[in-house]
Amino acid sequence: MFILLFLVIHWYASLFFQSFFHHRYAAHNHFTMSRAWEKFFYICCFITQGSSYISATSYGLMHRLHHAHTDTEKDPHSPSYTDNMFALLWQTRNNYNSIFLGRIKVDDKYKKDLPEWAAFDKMAHNWIARLAWGAFYIGIYALLVTQWWMWLFLPITFAMGALQGIAVNWWAHKFGYRNYTVNNTSRNIMPVDLIFWGEAYHNNHHKNPGRANNAVKWFEIDAGYGLMILMHKMRIIKLKPVNI
After folding, report:
1. Contact (CB, 8 A) for 82 and 165
2. What is the Cα–Cα distance from 127 to 158, expressed in whole angstroms?
3. What is the secondary structure of 43-97 as a DSSP string?
4. Can you spell out the DSSP letters for 145-211?
5. Cα 189 → chain centroid
6. With contact defined as beta carbons under 8 Å apart, do 57 and 115 qualify?
7. So what's the pLDDT on residue 226?
8. pLDDT value at position 10?
9. 228, HSE (Cβ side, Cα atoms, 13 Å)
């Protein structure tokens, strides 16, 4: 069952860096860090996301557009205009690629304070890197798989980052509870988030997108924010005063 352990570790590592670096840092600027640490976390994202690696710059732009146009036709990843989760996955993929390749014009107001490392993205964000990661994952599975059905998890490993993003963007606009009445369909997926590093509290986040801690109620736990507090105390990042 080592392959299941690998999946669990991959899930939490990949999702943490997507939440911490892509979402809370690139898109929302909840904290600052030095250029050296920024490049370190770029590399961490590449290692943990692997074949599903996405640019923090392009993700930040896309997510800012999501908040500016939530649940409208201009929203780059809204379930309000797709029939199912797979259609949303395809829509998000196309909109993300259009932003990454510069096929659509994005207003300058959305580009402020985005992390950029174009040379690294050029290396990490291409079909050669994705094929290399794919070969690596197949090798890992070949070593760890003990039953034929375990190979069925391989597509999840290949598309881990994309599936994590869709899990939040679909479910958290379809199912769950609401702490706040907002002008969109955002919801909190679960009252105790042990799976998504605090990203499950989507209604809370849409109410206060500038707030680093997504938890509001006493029973809500944002583990991602807890690690950010630790990194702040270790002087790896500097949380903005409103987020401490």
Report:
1. no
2. 13
3. HHHHHHHGGG---HHHHHHHHHHHHHTTTSTT-TT-GGG-SSHHHHHHHHHHHHH
4. --SGGGGGGHHHHHTHHHHHHHHHHHHTTTSSB-SS--SS---BS-SS-SSSTTTTBHHHHHH-TT-
5. 16
6. yes
7. 97
8. 97
9. 28
Three-state DSSP state, 238 = strand
Distance CA 211, CA 178 (A): 17
Burial of 61 (0-12, 13-18, 19+ CB in 10 A): buried
For 192, residues 6+ apart whose C-beta sits below 8 A from its C-beta are 219, 220, 221
pTM of this prediction exceeds 0.90: yes
Across the strands, what pairs with 152? none
Q: Which two tokens stand for residue 1?
A: 């069952």
Consecutive 10-residue runs of the chain (244 residues): their mean pLDDT?
94 97 98 98 98 97 95 90 89 94 92 96 95 98 96 96 91 94 95 94 97 96 97 97 86
In one-letter notation, the amino acid at residue 232 is H
Q: For residues 201 and 53, what is the distance between their CA atoms, to the nearest angstrom?
A: 24
